[in-house]
Amino acid sequence: MQHLLTLDGMPRATVVELLDRAQHFADLAGDSDALRGTAVCTLFFEPSTRTRMSFQLAAQRLGAHVLNFDVSTSSARKGETALDTMRNLEAMGVRGFIVRHHDDGAVARRADAARPGTALVNAGDGRSAHPTQGLLDMLTLRQAKGEDFARLKIAIVGDVKHSRVARSDLHALRALGAADVRVCAPSALLPDDATLAGCHVTHDLDEAIDGADAVMTLRLQRERMEDGLVDSLEGYHRDYGITATRLARAAPDAVVMHPGPINRGVEITDEVADGPRSLILRQVANGVAVRMAVLERLLAG
Ligand code: NCD
């Protein structure tokens, strides 16, 4: 594996190896020196809190030198091309690039142009993929519910259409054999491509949540409000918000997940987000461990 661009088509064995290694890092009290002397660079063309910080921390915990490319103050502002930027950083000895970009496929295009010894990690491109988020979500689910994904009932609720997180989650769930995946959103927020193959699609939140072992809710991408895809935040919350009352329909030990950032009171109430079923901060913690496993796999040795 030279790059990590997507979970689409990743064999189950590879997913499991990465999760096992991430669990090792989650259990590890100290740091590792697997990447001592290796230079990696974060290149984020879109805002990020969790993903960027946890990649930085993961690289540091592996002993790497971490550079943060600041798009707003770099020569990208003077018109330097993405390829020239990458070539210059490669010339300094950077071996790993962690890239987030608003365009679908932008990370893969950079990977195509990379030198043979350079690794790219997709930290989220357009609506397409966010593979490390998919892996950290699977690690979190596995810790809470065990390894047998085939017996789990999983509800994915919210703006699936614009969500690279949902796409990577669905790829990972398929690889791990999840058989009962319900996807719930208003029609305007459902994708019309092959993303939902094999899922039970419904507009009825109670139906989606009924007996679910895990409810994975997504951020309502408020920037889409302007497109008129959602009438009002209140209406969305009424129909698709995860509340304690709604959650009462799920399995008694159901867990709730959200990739962040949360719109409190829109897709999820404070009571649920901060309540005993919430794994939201566990997801964040697992993000560091998963990113350590990915960086080690791509760059060590
Ligand atoms: C998400 C993203 O940027 O794709 N956040 C994250 O990485 N945890 C989800 C979102 O912005 O809705």
Your description of this structure?
The protein is of the alpha/beta class and 301 residues long. The protein folds into two domains: 12-130 and 284-299, Rossmann fold (3-Layer(aba) Sandwich); 132-279, Rossmann fold (3-Layer(aba) Sandwich), CATH 3.40.50.1370. 38% of the residues lie in helices and 15% in strands. It is built from eleven helices and nine strands. The protein has helices at residues 12-27, 50-61, 82-91, 106-113, 131-145, 164-175, 205-209, 233-240, 244-247, 270-273, 280-299, and strands at 39-44, 65-69, 94-101, 119-125, 153-157, 180-184, 200-202, 214-217, 255-257. A five-stranded parallel β-sheet has the order 7-6-5-8-9. Strands 2-1-3-4 form a four-stranded parallel β-sheet, sandwiched between helices. The radius of gyration is 19 Å and the shape is globular. The two termini are 13 Å apart. The relative contact order is 0.17. The mean pLDDT is 95. N-carbamoyl-L-aspartate binds next to helix 2 and helix 6.
